[in-house]
Design a protein that fits this description.
Length: 215
């Protein structure tokens, strides 16, 4: 790393810092209290052009004009940065494993309620809806969404499906059910699915998810 993490709350805005070779280090940009927003903007551009797999913390930091350590300071991992770029109201990298850890019984309905709650709880669905629409026609966006779903959703669900040969397929079937519901409810506006409440949708959707996972 090129320099220490700068705490944007407690540290004063530093002046230019140079090393022995006179090279300026890249912590938080001097006087800039919007470093976090700059990182998110750079991340959205990177994920949109290079995809999830093709984007790196170092490259996003360079685009934002900050030290990579500051990206880790704010977001921790690339998965969490991607989730933040989508403006999700919760962190799926911890929520999904947490739901799975509660056991197989009732897992499908817990997943359904959480998934629908995230969408319904995000005003206008913002970048989430834009990504879902774009994924239909843009291979890069589709790749970003696929890679993220694989790491954050499919791997925990495959574990819940059990250590057998068909676990990965069962997990992908469950994930496809969720993506399909999102497309029909929020993009196509298919009725009565689009106007149904979470309480109406979660039990039947959860039952399908349970069948996919358990066989």
């Amino acid at each position: 790393m090129t320099g220490p993490v700068t705490d944007p709350v407690t540290d004063p805005a530093p002046g230019p810092v140079t090393g022995a070779a006179g090279r300026r280090r890249t912590g938080r940009r001097p006087g800039d209290s919007g470093a976090r927003d700059a990182i998110l903007a750079a991340a959205r551009r990177a994920f949109g052009t290079g995809g999830f797999a093709g984007s790196t913390i170092r490259g996003i930091a360079r685009e934002a004009g900050v030290d990579p350590a500051l990206v880790h300071h704010y977001f921790g991992t690339k998965d969490r940065l991607f989730a933040a770029a989508l403006e999700l109201p919760l962190d799926p990298t911890t929520v999904i494993p947490g739901l799975v850890a509660q056991g197989r019984d009732g897992l499908g309905e817990r997943l359904a309620r959480t998934f629908l709650g995230v969408w319904d709880g995000t005003p206008g669905q913002g970048p989430m809806l834009a990504m879902l629409r774009s994924a239909v026609s843009d291979p890069t966006t589709a790749g970003s969404l696929r890679d993220f779903l694989t790491r954050v959703v499919l791997e925990p669900l495959a574990g819940a499906a059990g250590a057998h040969e068909g676990a990965a397929l069962r997990a992908s079937l469950a994930a496809s059910q969720l993506v399909g519901v999102a497309m029909a409810r929020y993009v196509v506006g298919l009725e009565p699915l689009a106007s149904a409440s979470i309480d109406e949708l979660a039990p039947p959707l959860g039952a399908v998810l349970d069948r996919h996972l358990a066989g």
